Amino acid sequence: MDLGLEGKVALVTASSRGLGKAVAMGIAQEGADVVICARGEEALFTTAEGIEEATGRDVLAIPADVTDSDAADRLVQASLDRFGRLDILVTNAGGPPPGAFLDFTVEDWEEAAQLTLMSAVRLCYAAAPVLKEQGSGAILAMTSITVKQPLPRLVLSNSLRLGVVGLIKTLADELGPHGVRANAICPGWTRTARVEQLLEDRAERNDTSVDEEAAEVAGAVPLGRIGTPEEFAAAAAFLVSDAASYINGVSLLVDGGMARGTM
To answer: Which CA distances in Å does 78 have to 25, 28, 29?
Structure first.
């Protein structure tokens, strides 16, 4: 299937590794030029070089921390300066730390809100007027299975990512008449550095090994395994593409069937 991404320009944040990197690679493989960002410059530029070599597309790498108040405007403007357009925004940020409610302070919540919720808000404020003016485009927020099924010891993620979903549902309604779609994508257990952190946390608490915890997690997934970043990226590329032109306001689970809810 031709996804219709040839010649499009996508901004994917927090994309030097993990799911962000996989999504940037997947979109570039479908023919789009990409703008990527991350805090660590070495990993960022290595990723940019790797995507360019693998896909032949133009990759603009910009060191940035999405919690900085001016980062969103700077990233969108850099996209316009380099490519003259922006068609796709994929909001992504590192997940907040695991823990139970009483493990955290109010200050921890405020810091997590800047990372998980407000980074997406700022990026949408920066990109939405551009997409609205050109009369087309797609916004995709990377969230988590926790917006459908809260998980133990992930109170920050369980709570704050729901705010991102509320934002996306609202943007789908407000920007849809202008030809701009907004969706969320919700990974389940996918083998990334973030998931390794969660498995290590579980292993330490349960006095087990990471491999034992991974096996237990896989046993709770109907497909019997943890997903790959490439599988997640394929779904993300579809959602931002013309092939998904009538999909708006959804939160798509990419979790192997782990979430048991019907809504």
So the answer is: 19, 18, 22
Which token pair is 29? 């493989």
Does this model's pTM top 0.70? My answer is yes
Give, in order, the Cα–Cα distances in Å from 126 to each of 55, 87, 97, 100, 192.
Answer: 28, 13, 27, 34, 28
Amino acid 55 reads: T
pLDDT average per 10 residues of sequence, the chain (263 residues): 93 97 98 97 98 98 96 98 98 93 98 97 98 97 95 95 98 98 96 86 91 92 96 98 97 95 79
Q: Which of 95, 92, 90, 69 is nearest to 79 (CA)?
A: 90
Tell me the pairing of strands 9-12 and 88-91.
Answer: parallel
pLDDT at 230: 97
Are 236 and 183 contacting, i.e. CB atoms less than 8 angstroms apart? no
Rg (CA), the chain: 18
- Angstrom distance (rounded) from CA 248 to CA 135: 15
